[in-house]
Specification:
With about 180 residues, the protein is of the alpha+beta class. Helices cover about 20% and strands about 40% of the residues. A hairpin with a 4-residue loop joins β7 (about 65-75) and β8.
Length: about 180
C-alpha cells in the first residue's frame, strides 16, 4: 500500500494531495495530471474516478455526515486549482494550488522573436547557407531553455466561503463614522 502524506503537497510527478482534518478523521483528496482523482478517509479509498472537466465532485460520508470534495480548475494556464471540503452542505475547508511563476513570459517570447529574426536575416541578407538555419534554431532553443524559471507549485489554504487566503484581511474595509 502506498504511503499517504500527512500534509498537503504538490508536484508534477506524484500529483496533488489535499489533506483535511475533520472531527478526528483525516480526509485526503488526490489528483493527477492524467485526470485520475481519489478521496481517502482514514487511509481508505471512498471515491475514485477520472475527470477531464473543470469541476469534479466526489460524494462520500465521514461517520454519519454526508460530505463532498469538490475539485475546481480555475485556470489551465496558471495551473490554478481549488479543492473544497463540504459537509452537510456547508464548506469546511479549502486549498488553492497554483504555479509559482507564470508559464508564459513576454521577455522570453521577445528573445525568441529577436533570435529568430537574426537567423532569418543572416540566411537571407548575409547569404548563409540554408543548413545553418538548424544550428541557429538549436541555439535559440538552448537559450530559451537556459532562461526559463524552474516551475514550482504553491499550495495555500483559503477561506472556503470567500475564496481568499485564510490569513488574508478583507480587501475593502468600510470606515466607521
Amino acid at each position: 500500500m502506498q504511503e499517504l502524506p500527512p500534509q498537503s503537497k504538490a508536484d508534477l510527478r506524484d500529483g496533488i494531495w489535499f489533506v483535511f482534518a475533520l472531527d478526528g478523521h483525516i480526509v485526503r483528496g488526490w489528483g493527477s495530471r492524467s485526470g485520475l482523482e481519489r478521496v481517502y478517509v482514514d487511509d481508505q479509498i471512498v471515491s475514485e474516478h477520472r475527470s477531464f472537466g473543470r469541476t469534479s465532485v466526489h460524494a462520500f460520508s465521514v461517520g454519519t455526515r454526508p460530505c463532498e470534495l469538490r475539485f475546481v480548475t480555475l485556470s489551465y494556464l496558471k495551473g490554478a486549482l481549488e479543492c473544497t471540503l463540504s459537509c452537510a452542505g456547508k464548506p469546511v475547508a479549502a486549498f488553492r494550488v497554483r504555479y509559482s511563476s507564470p508559464l508564459f513570459s513576454w521577455k522570453r517570447l521577445a528573445l525568441a522573436l529577436v533570435l529568430g529574426a537574426l537567423t532569418g536575416w543572416g540566411v537571407s541578407y548575409l547569404k548563409w547557407p540554408p543548413w545553418t538555419v538548424w544550428p541557429a534554431l538549436g541555439l535559440v532553443l538552448l537559450v530559451l531553455q537556459r532562461t526559463r524559471k524552474r516551475l514550482t507549485i504553491l499550495i495555500e489554504e483559503v477561506n472556503p466561503i470567500a475564496g481568499r487566503p485564510a490569513d488574508a484581511r478583507p480587501r475593502h474595509q468600510s470606515r466607521q463614522p
